[in-house]
């Protein structure tokens, strides 16, 4: 049984310029690096409304802690 890796990171340039690369995750759009990943709190980026994030930024990823997903997961397990 072949197992697909959790993620793949490919580097572009390595010397003389900014180190660039591509972060690929299964079933997700690849993220060009360097890139900003927003820190989310309970699924939202603090101090920014959803419409402003969409309209004024190009953020394509966010980091959120696993405990922020606990409520959703517990609701799904009850169904």
UniProtKB/TrEMBL annotation:
<protein>
    <submittedName>
        <fullName>Uncharacterized protein</fullName>
    </submittedName>
</protein>
<dbReference type="GO" id="GO:0006400">
    <property type="term" value="P:tRNA modification"/>
</dbReference>
<dbReference type="InterPro" id="IPR036511">
    <property type="entry name" value="TGT-like_sf"/>
</dbReference>
């Amino acid at each position: 049984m072949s197992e697909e890796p959790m993620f793949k990171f490919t580097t572009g340039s390595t010397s003389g310029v900014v180190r660039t690369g591509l972060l690929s995750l299964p079933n997700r759009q690849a993220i060009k690096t360097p890139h900003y990943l927003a820190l989310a709190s309970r699924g939202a980026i603090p101090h920014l409304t959803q419409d402003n994030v969409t309209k004024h930024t190009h953020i394509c990823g966010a980091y959120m802690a696993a405990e922020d997903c606990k409520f959703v997961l517990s609701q799904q397990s009850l169904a």
